[in-house]
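Continuing the series of single-chain predictions for the mutant panel. This is the parent chain; the variants come on the following pages.
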Amino acid sequence: MESYVGLIAMGLVLGALGTLIGAGGGFVLMPVLLLMYPHTSPETLTCISLAVVFFNALSGSWAYARMRRIDYKSGLLFAAAAVPGAVLGALSTAYIPRHIFDAVSGVMMIAAAAYLLFQTIEHGKASREKNKPHIAGDEVATSETAHQVSCNLRLGVELSLFVGYVSSLLGIGGGIIHVPILVRVLKFPVHIATATSHFILAIMALAGTIVHIVSGSFTHGGIHRTIGLSIGVLLGAQVGAMLSARVKGMLIIRGLAIALACVGLQLLLAIF
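Parent structure:
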């Protein structure tokens, strides 16, 4: 059985990285779990990852709330759309063979990395589309500046439903998909996107975790690993939120892409 010290240290790193980029750390934790425990069922690893992602997102959201970076109006709406997808995704995991699960996870990470690396980030205020339903929130004031956030309501809801399903199915939490969507498609400023994504992620990961608990996916080893990792991410999330104020948005996205490509390739190489 792994020591709590090692699990806490791993959680600390994952919590800081996940909060920094708004992805909750699940995109790194899940591949690590898949590589460390090649004979464990996908549903067991998924429930561990989602539970840890919840605690990371909860801690990170608290930190971002104090910085006033979260767009609560769009965040609550998108979370409401993502929860049904998260529940369905958690129920679907048990029906996927382990080798297929690993392959799908690796391919999705590499595809997301390629998308981020070969697209140009638009800076400044979010662009507005006319004659389409929008939700426009109040200005989200941060310690640096204020941003007027607006986005396509219908598109955001549809994409959030998809994100909820895929992220819960694969145990990656969803931030790894939601942040690019908020930035690239819905035109959120990067730092507002990472904070709002964390808020959505906390609600979505909690829903997926509850489904796994009710279905009995947690084992004794799963509970032990979840406790150790969760202690680490609760601390690491605070560190990541503080670092986010000192890191440029472009660097956050590029760092996210590089990390995705590395873990995706490693996961695929382990299969073959």
